[in-house]
Amino acid sequence: MTKLSLTINGRAHGPVDVRDELSMNDFLREYLGMTGTKFGCGAAQCLSCAVIVDDPDGTSYTSPTCVASAASFDGKTIRTVEGHAKGDELTALQKAFIRHFAFQCGYCTAGFLNEGQVLLERLAKAPVKRAALESTIAEALDGHICRCTGYIKYHEAVRDVILADSSRYLVANQ
Amino acid sequence: MKSELRFQLAVAVLAVATSMFAGYAVSQTAPQSLASPESFASISDTDARSAAMFAELGKVLTHPRCTNCHPATDRPRQGDEGRLHQPPVTRGADGHGLAAMRCSSCHKHANFEPGRMPGHPEWHLAPREMAWEGKTVAEICAQLKDPARNGGRKLEELIHHIGEDTLVGWAWAPGGNRSPVPGTQKQAGALVEAWVKTGAACPAQ
User: Fold this and answer.
1) What are phi and psi of B120, to 5 degrees?
2) Does one domain contain both B147 and B173?
């Protein structure tokens, strides 16, 4: 057993005793009832279960939860799909997903949303040239699998958000 | 006559079953051993002894536990079969993956067997110039002696890398149903040390 304490969407959880073999996905879904994070392949292949991990140094990355123990998240700060919107106000990326009808069944959406959000935050700190944007988005979303094959719509939605605020995400005059 | 035939058939089935289970047990529980440096003492020629010890070490270096993360391309391999890594990750600038998919995203500080996920705090790929996959033991030997292709290490530093590095050491205790590399890390380190001290000669092939 491990005593688990972590922050999820700005709210502290724990300490709570968890079995060492409990996956983070089960902790979120079964212990906390946060079912926005999906369980897909169970093998880190589809990333529908990915959440955002915010490191103390200000960097963020996504992490699958199906193949990781809950205990390995002790002390971490994470964000899940439930933490994006502020009340009824959706984020620019969520709105773009809806506008583009980027998802059909929606099972992969939480993972894509988290990955897209991490990309936006990364570009805000380290903008890229317009010429590199397509490959940057493709590379960021590359690990996520959508069985409804909504890849292009997800890509276009992320691109729209970036181009709508290009001074923030892209290197000027490039 | 009939009972004699039945007896022979039963013996044959028993023999096949026994050999199958014995083979299974060996593959599951008894990793291939590694000869000690002392066992090469009978080879009087120093170069030949040195090369023979490296050839023995080759059992470790060409094992999928090693070559999977010393791949020929930018994409690691996985499993005892050395199949291409899924999901399709690549090494990135520092060998720890691309910005959007770092090794540590999935590979945490320790194995997580319920998810069949191997782990170590420093999980990453060997540098591109240290690719071993598909190479002969002789080619790997020449590579290990070349600082441009061994991570800038002196030969003496290889003793520590192979004999003590904890990420390398994971290969001897990989957990799950993964085959460990032969022998022990200490034995492999001893072989490297003896190989270096005898002039680091390479086998012919």
Assistant:
1) -165, 145
2) yes
CA distance B168 to B190: 15
**Same domain as B138, residue B64:** yes
Nearest residue of B to residue A141, measured between CA atoms: B100
CATH code assigned to A2-83: 3.10.20.30
Tell whether ipTM is more than 0.95: no
The residues facing B102 across adjacent strands are: B97
Q: Is residue B147 domain-shared with residue B191, that is, in the same domain? A: yes
Q: Provide the residue ranges of all domains of chain A, joining segments of one domain with +.
A: 2-83, 92-169
**A85–chain B nearest CA distance, Å:** 22
Q: Which residues contact A161 (CB under 8 A, 6 or more apart)?
A: A92, A93, A96, A116, A120
B3 and B69 together in one domain? no
Phi then psi for A147, rounded to 5 degrees?
Answer: -70, -15
Average pLDDT, chain A: 95
pLDDT in tens, A45-99: 899 999 999 999 999 999 999 999 999 999 999 999 999 999 999 999 999 999 9
Mean pLDDT score of chain B: 87
What is the residue range of B23's domain? 1-30
- Among chain A residues, the shortest Cα distance to B102 is held by A61
Q: Are residues B129 and B177 in the same domain?
A: yes
Instruction: Answer whether B60's CB lies under 8 Å from B181's CB.
Output: yes
Give domain status of residue B106, yes or no.
no
Query: Locate tokens 């936006």: which residue?
Result: A120
Q: Are strands A60-63 and B101-102 parallel, antiparallel or unpaired?
A: unpaired
| Residue B108 domain-assigned (yes or no) | no
Q: Do A68 and B89 touch (CB under 8 A)?
A: no
Q: State which H helix or E strand residue A115 sits in.
A: helix A109-125
Ramachandran category for residue A110: left, alpha or beta (phi over 0 → left; psi -120 to 50 → alpha): alpha
CATH 1.10.150.120 applies to domain A92-169: yes
Instruction: Pinpoint the alpha helices (H) of chain B.
Output: 2-29, 46-61, 64-67, 103-106, 137-144, 155-163, 166-169, 185-197
Q: Are residues B80 and B156 in the same domain?
A: yes
What is each CA distance from B106 to A20, A37, B90, B115, in whole angstroms?
Answer: 16, 16, 14, 10
Strands (E), chain A: 2-8, 11-18, 51-54, 60-63, 77-79
Q: Measured between CB atoms, which of B105, B109, B114 is closest to A61?
A: B105
Nearest Cα of chain A lies from the Cα of B56 at a distance, in angstroms, of 35
